[in-house]
Amino acid sequence: MSALILAVLLAALDQTIVSTALPRIAEDLNGFDDIAWVSAAYLLASTAVTPLWGKLGDMFGRKRLYLASTSIFLIASVACGLAQSLPELIGARVLQGVGGGGMIVLTFALVGDIVAPGERGRYQGMFGSVYGVASIVGPLLGGVFTDQLSWRWAFLVNLPIGAVALAVAARSLPAASRRSRARIDYLGSLVLAAIATGLVLVTSFGQRWGWTSPAITGLIAGTVALAVLLVPVERRAAAPVLPPAMFTSRTVVFSSLIGFVANAAMFAVLVYLPTYLQIVHGVSATLSGVFMLPLVAGLVVSQSLAGRWAARTALLRRILLGGLLANLAGLLLLSTIGAGTSTLVLSGYFLITGVGIGMVPMVVMTTVQNSVGPADLGAASAVVTFARSIGAAFGVAIFGTLLNTGFADRTRGLPVAGGFDAARPDTIGHLPAALQGTALDAFAHATAAGYLWMAPALVAGTALALFLEPARPQRPAPAGNVRTTGTGATGAMAGTAADGTVKAA
């Protein structure tokens, strides 16, 4: 578990740690025009390969795939740290995303393999907490490395931590005893990767290129066409990367949609609340992270408690509904913030929001894993991870558009109108002192309005949860069942059979 936690920490950090280092990277590598690709390349690659890593883990055993993805991630981290030009860095980030995507989805699937079904929620909650904390700590670490050392350490720091994770995993993880002889679904993997590419490009560059521009509308049309094509492609595949049964499983579909909307709301909070604190309350990047500690505390505590409560399958839907409602309450409270909202009141809002954020991901993953057999555990985990990744991208993109549009509407006539970008919060600081108060108030109200507009997505997610019936964990056939040994929650798994079932030690 220690090795898996370190891997999730590294993969999650590299989605956010670069954000505060981007201006310095652009300056050093002379690439201001294309700097957005440094973040987009990692997100694109990690999202595109997630389903393939999950399916390959089902077919050939997760240990060797996990070690391979971690090794790719570490090699790419070295390449990122040594890059001498922006194209080199972007290429290394693509490779890093390939490894990072595998690390995350295989970790969640490995938990499903080696942990007794009744205890999955507790461990999934642990990893979910790591993921949430990394989303807040990442930008802070990136800022510290950039200011005190070099932006290159945002990548090189992965090496010592990753080496420990790799060594422990190589020694401790159970190995697969046999390989599957089924053919890899290359066509399905290619179509799915193209869909992910289109979605990430739309969300990453929609505002920059224009949501109605030919490039974005063409990407949207192409992505929709590929999504329609994916279903018949997977039905014809011998070993589909996304088994067709998952398209018809209400549990998988509803859980994935809930994960999508919950992650959209979560990343709208995690990415833009620090910006609000820095601009409106005038705190530093580091201090904004301190102000976010109530949210982190709520997230970690709720993940832990929900994981323990989820040992009883009957409570899964109640926990999920509670988390979604708490998250919705948090967004509605955040929709009331203004320039004069006190830090004490904000701390209360952050705590409630964190509680809601923490309870949802664990239940979604556990519910899906309980609904499928061992042969599809990796593919099912990948579906949820894929939906959550796309949800995060959409949440950041949509909220950024709402924020910029709302701010421009409220500052029409001021010198800042039309020229503000939430990624460059120093814009307001360059205004004349007499106008800064008006601009700060406008920014606070635009942020609040953005959270109000995000609330209907959580209402839809809550409605879906009402119709979600968490299944009891599916167990393999007696010839190849998973058994836990001793009195602990984890079991010893000898390997994965050719047909995908898990053989007990």
Describe the protein.
Helix content is 73%, strand content 1%. By secondary structure, it is mainly alpha-helical. A two-stranded antiparallel sheet has the order 1-2. Strand 1 and strand 2 (502-504) form a beta hairpin. The model is unreliable at 476-505 (pLDDT under 50).
- Uncertain runs with pLDDT below 50, 5 residues or more? 476-505
Amino-to-carboxy terminus distance: 18 Å
Element order: H for helix, E for strand = HHHHHHHHHHHHHHHHHHEE
The portion of residues forming beta strands comes to under 5%
Q: What is the radius of gyration?
A: 22 Å
The main sheet comes to: 2 strands, antiparallel
In helices, the fraction of residues equals over 70%
Average pLDDT confidence is 76
Helix/sheet category:
mainly alpha
Number of helices: 18
* Shape, principal axes of CA atoms: globular
How many distinct beta strands? 2
How do the strands of the widest beta sheet line up side by side?
1-2
Short description:
This protein is mainly alpha-helical and 505 residues long.
Task: Outline the fold blueprint.
Layout: H1 2-16, H2 22-29, H3 36-60, H4 62-82, H5 86-114, H6 120-148, H7 153-156, H8 158-172, H9 186-209, H10 214-236, H11 245-248, H12 250-280, H13 285-291, H14 293-309, H15 316-334, H16 343-371, H17 377-410, H18 433-466, E1 493-496, E2 502-504
Antiparallel strand pairs: 1-2
